[in-house]
Amino acid sequence: MDAAQQEATARARELQRSWYGEPLGALFRRLIDDLGLNQARLAAVLGLSAPMLSQLMSGQRAKIGNPAVVQRVQALQELAGQVADGSVSAAEATDRMDEIKKSQGGSVLTSTSQTTASSGAPTVRRVVREIQSLLRSVAAAGDIIDAADTLAPTHPELAEFLRVYGAGRTADAVAHYESHQS
């Protein structure tokens, strides 16, 4: 690799750090290890070609262009955390990865049919996940915590919100959400 390629790769990894909180190579390797995948299976679950995954991991490409893929990455990160803390078994994780693979992604503006439970109302977990996804799409967890620390002396409730939803676990955010409903 020549100097220009090395510089481009370093720049791509720095952009990945700012957009995703860390270089995608490190993030994807952790998902592969935590979920017992290989690169081909990770690419399939995310909906990426194997060459595209390789280019993102190596820093030849900086950005994931498809928002649905970004959401699948976030869903896999949450799943890996649940496997690590024992709240999801390996067998359940395999089933969840199949669900994640089929998911179309979406955003805060997803259609009602995708965001509602059988009762017709959005589930608490779904609302929390949308808030987490939105916060995490605009800033990395470390930046959110820094912002929370800055706000804490004058706006402690807002600081707590940022910490819980921007950098915390989904289960803690669900508990926070439920405790603040009237």
From TrEMBL:
Residues 99-121 are annotated as: Disordered. GO terms for molecular function: DNA binding. Keywords: DNA-binding. Residues 110-119 have a biased composition (Low complexity). InterPro entries: Cro/C1-type_HTH (IPR001387), Lambda_DNA-bd_dom_sf (IPR010982). CDD domains: HTH_XRE (cd00093). Gene3D superfamilies: lambda repressor-like DNA-binding domains (1.10.260.40). This is DNA-binding protein. It comes from Streptomyces ficellus.
